[in-house]
Amino acid sequence: MASHLIFELNKVRYALAAATVRGTFWLPELSPAEDLPEYVVGLVNWQGRVVPILDLALRFGHAFKPYRLSQAVILIEEGRQCAGLVVDVVHDLVEIDPQAIAPYVQREEAAPSDSLPMIAGSVKWHDGVLILLDPSVCIRLDQLAGQEDRLIPDPIDRFGELDPAARARLRERTHRLAQTPVQASLDRRLFARVRIGASRIALPLDTIAEVAHLHAYTPIPCCPSHVLGAVNQRGAILILYDMAPLLQGRGHDDYSSIVVLRAGALRLGLAVHQIEDIRDHDPSAVAPVSGSFDGHGYFSALLQDTDGVAGVLDIRVLLRQGVLEVDAQD
After folding, report:
1. What is the pLDDT of residue 213?
2. pLDDT beyond 80 at 194
3. Which domains does the chain have, with CATH numbers?
């Protein structure tokens, strides 16, 4: 099994080998990129390193669409090359069996004869298909045929009309990206940031076994309100938890994703509304919690990022407090 990051672009779902993904971040302001293919839509200063940002839709030959603040960038590093891909939504981090990957059917005229195909294969996924991309080909800066005459806006205009507050958010994102890490990259910590209702939560990546879409679950009678039910995840029956009653006083029934957490041999499911991103953070961005955060003691630290503060959920605290025990209620 190999980990892949699933993302969406123009309502199509793609997957990239997670080993090549350096991180994800919200789309920032872009500096002009001169003397490069048209699909290189700008440059960013990422921790002191100049990184080209590629529009994957343009790379596939689609027409340009103005960017939105909700779009993200997936940063790929392959050998000595590093580039970012503009995507609509970053979805799941999942395991894919290499034996399940099939060749991708593509017409010969769909790609220039002098270029390598970006699509490495396809795989059946739930009720649809995932298109697997070759990251080393995606970030190559080859000029594709038929792109010389495209009319692409300058980087300053790629977002269209934005109000002053939105422009300020873009500038803040750009400033954060340019900050050089205080310590070496090996000291940086990986977190997945998720949203449960109004709560933003950070989960250490080493506690996550899998992230996937939540399709269905079976309620368990006579359980506490924070126990949604049981879910069949790849043949294993997991208890699915809703942290909203504990964090916000009321539960939800409109969750879209499940994060499978692990603590030793224990596996459990956490229902979430949104997976914001998965990336590394400088140690200075993580501050230990003294007492409680947000009125409870389920968090071991605070994670400060561009969009505010997220509590770092500590599964060991939940286990010690017995929150994860499934006891029948009268």
Report:
1. 84
2. yes
3. 2-178 (2.40.50.180), 185-320 (2.40.50.180)
